[in-house]
Each structure stands twice: as C-alpha cells, then as structure tokens.
Specification:
Layout (H helix, E strand, L loop, with lengths): L5 E4 L8 H16 L5 H19 L5 H16 L5 H12 L9 H8 L4 E6 L3 H11 L7 E4 H4 L6 H10 L8 E5 L2 H11 L2 E5 L14 E3 L10
Helix pairs in contact: 1-4, 2-3, 3-4
The structure holds magnesium ion.
Magnesium ion binds next to loops.
C-alpha cells in the first residue's frame, strides 16, 4: 500500500482477544456475586452483547445502553435474580486486567512500530482500554488512543472518524489506514469515511456488500505483505 503514514487499529478481536478476556472476567464477576457460571452464561453474554453493540453501530442505541442493558437482559433470559448493575460493575472491573493477545498481535505491533504512526480506534471506555493496552504491552508503542467514550461518537459513525482526524491535525485521507475485524464498525466506518481499510476476517462475520474493504487478511501476519 502506497503513501501510508498513520494506522488506526481496532482493539477488541483485532489486537486483544475479547472472547478470551470476557471468559475470565465473566467468571470472576459471577463468582463475586454467587452466580453459577458456565458455557450457557458465556454464550448468552456474547449474543446479547453483540446485539446491543450492533444497535449502537446502527445508531439505535448509545454506548451507555450496552452497559445498562446487557446484564439485565441476560439475567431475564437465564432467570437470575441478582442486581445486573452490580454484575456490570464487577465484569468491567475484572475486564481491566484481561489482555490476552489475538495470535500475531505482538508481532504485528513490533513490525508496524517505528514505520508508521500508530493509534487505536475503539468503541469502548477510555480508562478500561488504556489499562488493557498497558497489560498487553501495546500502550507504549502507540502515538495516541481514540476511544468512543472520549470522542463522543462510536464507529462506524462519521463523527467518530472526523474527531480522530481533527486530533490527528487533519492529515490527507490517503495517508490513513484502518485495520479492524468488524464489517459493521470498521469496514463500514472506514470505507464510509473515505479511508482505506484492511479487514481482518476471522471467519465469524460476513461483509456488507455495500462496503468492501481495500484488502482482506485472514491472519495478522498477512498484513506484513501489505504494509
Ligand atoms: Mg473489533
């Protein structure tokens, strides 16, 4: 890829493995509250969590709705009689310490570091993501962090990317590339905003035919052939 100077990296399921992190954090949160934890709880969490994040991406909900609703809905589905707000609090507390790498993430960061200016671009909460990036060993390689809680908008909305560009000092769009795993947040967001996107296809989600990434990779190692 020609002319690239700045790379925006998604965090969850691109650099840090959210499924693995959430397994540990959910288990600890349930243990704190005396809730029985198993595969059904884990699967229900991901189904409900993904559904509400999709609503955020579609502009039908805001980030706070994820935090307010997900354990309430999970507890309703599973018939658990505990305080969902407390579970949310415990889950997010434990999640701060969870930073399992996606395979190849460390190698990718070391490959990109020094060649490009590196920023993360994530739909989440600033303090939590900073803590996880530090634990993952990635924070000191970054030139900055763009997190939706701090920017006041979420991917894929153009306001999110406009704020990133403002903070970057309005570079030409062809100098910026986004790397991310989500067709709805990263590919739609980046392509919709007019920047190039490398889609990390984990084999889980399908592309929206209206938004085609510039490149597709199936492992993070493949990015070394592109950048
Ligand atoms: Mg992601």
């Amino acid at each position: 890829m020609e002319n690239v100077k700045i790379i925006l990296l998604d965090i969850d399921n691109t650099l840090i493995d959210f499924r693995r992190c959430s397994r540990e954090a959910l288990s600890n949160a349930c243990s704190d509250l005396g809730i029985e934890y198993g595969q059904t709880f884990f699967d229900t969490f991901h189904r409900v969590n993904n559904k509400i994040w999709k609503e955020v991406e579609d502009g039908k909900a805001v980030r706070q709705d994820v935090y307010d609703r997900r354990f309430r809905e999970i507890f309703e589905i599973l018939g658990i009689d505990r305080d969902p707000a407390e579970c949310e609090k415990r889950f997010r507390y434990h999640l701060r310490f969870a930073a399992d790498h996606v395979p190849g993430a460390e190698r990718l960061m070391k490959y990109l570091y020094g060649k490009y200016k590196l920023y993360v671009a994530s739909n989440s909460t600033l303090g939590e993501q900073e803590s996880r990036l530090r634990r993952a060993g990635f924070f000191d390689m970054l030139n900055g962090v763009f997190i939706s809680s701090d920017l006041g908008a979420s991917k894929p909305h153009p306001e999110f990317f406009a704020e990133c560009f403002k903070r970057l000092g309005d570079p030409p769009k062809d100098e910026v590339v986004l790397i991310g795993d989500s067709p709805s947040a990263d590919v739609r967001g980046g392509i919709g905003f007019g920047i190039r996107v490398i889609w990390f296809d984990r084999g889980v989600e399908k592309l929206d035919p209206e938004y085609i990434p510039t490149c597709t990779v199936h492992s993070l190692e493949e990015i070394e052939q592109i950048l």
